[in-house]
Amino acid sequence: MATTQITPLTVNGILLHPSAVNVGDVLGFLRQHLEDKVVWDQSKYIWLLREVMGLRCQRYFEIGVHGGSSLAAAAYCASPVHMLAGIDTFKGSGKHGTRTRARTFSDLMDLNVHDHNIAVITGDAGDTSTAAKLIPRFAPCDMLYVDADKSQGFVAKIWSMYSPHISLGGLAMFNDYAIYKGDGVRKFFDRLGVPSDFHCVGVVGRMIIFQRVQDA
Ligand SMILES: C[S@@+](CC[C@H](N)C(=O)[O-])C[C@H]1O[C@@H](n2cnc3c(N)ncnc32)[C@H](O)[C@@H]1O
């Protein structure tokens, strides 16, 4: 597990969540009290972080939707969201098998108990033509979750294409940083360091989380 750095969810001294909860505190609590005892998959973290962000998160983007469990977790939050949007090639994912967009979208609609707007786009998230279906319509986003190709080249491409479209105070979450098969994710971020306009909130589970603290 990588060393973690906890920072409060504030921008220019302003606490972003009205209930005065901050992401750093929540992650610190989880690490201290729960991680050894509970099997947490990433969807639960997404749900929790989405709740912590509360009204601050109105647009959630996901790259690597597959069966939709993390997108459904984000959509399960009752706080108002204007839009949740995900991209997947729907060409399959090794051990997870293939899912069609139609099946995933139908499951997401069944689980969308709060009637949020959900868009699921088919395509390679690293292609500018796919990004063009998402960014001009829905950016900036307040939470970006990336759980797709774990190669260093792909992560680099996604960071350069999508991180400029994260809002001030918004989170970038990359899965499989803290796992052997996520070598590319770890290599990319360890080489990059913490970008000057982001804080590293920490690593929780397998996911590394950054928060934008300066405009792009
Ligand atoms: C581990 S699964 C995602 C699991 C999902 N987050 C969930 O909670 O169910 C990885 C997904 O990334 C997708 N993927 C891989 N490369 C991609 C790319 N270049 N663009 C978009 N999606 C991609 C795969 O099709 C696969 O469905």
Blueprint (SSEs and pairs):
Layout: E1 10-11, E2 14-15, H1 23-33, H2 42-53, E3 59-63, H3 69-75, E4 83-88, H4 101-111, E5 118-122, H5 128-138, E6 141-146, H6 152-162, E7 166-174, H7 183-192, E8 198-204, E9 207-212
Parallel strand pairs: 3-4, 3-6, 4-5, 6-7
Antiparallel strand pairs: 1-2, 7-9, 8-9
Helix pairs in contact: 2-3, 6-7
Bound molecules: S-adenosylmethionine (SAM).
S-adenosylmethionine binds near residues 63, 68, 69, 124 and 147.
Rounded average pLDDT: 82
Specify the helix fraction band. Answer: 25-40%
Strand order of the largest sheet: 5-4-3-6-7-9-8
Total strand segments: 9
Here the CATH topology of the domain at 20-64 and 124-212 equals Rossmann fold
CATH superfamily of the domain at 20-64 and 124-212: Vaccinia Virus protein VP39
Approximate shape: globular
Oligomer: single chain
Ions, cofactors, ligands: which are bound?
S-adenosylmethionine
Order of helices and strands: EEHHEHEHEHEHEHEE
Share of residues in strands: 15-25%
Give the termini separation.
29 Å
**How many strands, which pairing sense, and closed or not: the largest β-sheet?**
7 strands, mixed
Please count the helical segments. 7
Second-tier CATH architecture of the domain at 20-64 and 124-212: 3-Layer(aba) Sandwich
Which class of the domain at 20-64 and 124-212 in CATH terms? Alpha Beta
Sheet/helix structural class? alpha/beta
What is the radius of gyration computed over CA atoms, rounded to a whole number of angstroms? Answer: 16 Å
- Unreliable stretches (pLDDT < 50, length at least 5) are 1-21
